[in-house]
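Example 3.2
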Amino acid sequence: MRSQLNKIGLKIKPGTLVKPQVTIPALPICNLGAVANMVHKCGGEAFITGTPQDLYRAQRIILAGVGAFDAGMRALEEGGWLKPLNDIAKRGQVPIHGICLGMQLMCRRSEEGVLPGLGWFDADVKRIILPPGSRLKVPHMGWNTLNIHSANALLSSKSDEQRFYFVHSYHVVCDDSVDVVASTTHGVDLTAAISRGHLYGTQFHPEKSHRFGMALIQNLLEL
């Protein structure tokens, strides 16, 4: 890691402890402070940047977002983020973690809007439709447990109950169930986490999920 940092012009003194770094695009679609604070709390260094070219030097990337799908895609396009993000995703060397809307933007399209998504996953985003007569409400908001389908680098398959905080009205539907790492139940089964290669997505908010979110972010820092 020290040699990588030296290559980009940072001088590291011998014996200096280098914290694992996460680069976060400064998009107007999320609470950047909450995500950055969680990274710091987990022992990492959060680098919030408004310069898309900085992504090419990133060790890890968090694509965080809340709100509408089209607003998210417009923020990526107007900010000049699309090319570096697509380049890095195609190379498959740098972990990219999409949170909430960030995960949905990794898909092909959404029923919430008309703009195409990033298309990194063979998946569409659809509105949550509850069974007739259900007393539950949309959005799916609050704490919920996960059903782990296959462990990945961020989520373990340990038997202990894992609970995370959700806020969403739309959910990801993958063509291939292999991409689905975990689901949750809110009247119907909903995709909670997806993964393919170095791409990771969580519908829930790790930065709002206390010790469970800390464990996930710590796993990200170890990649």
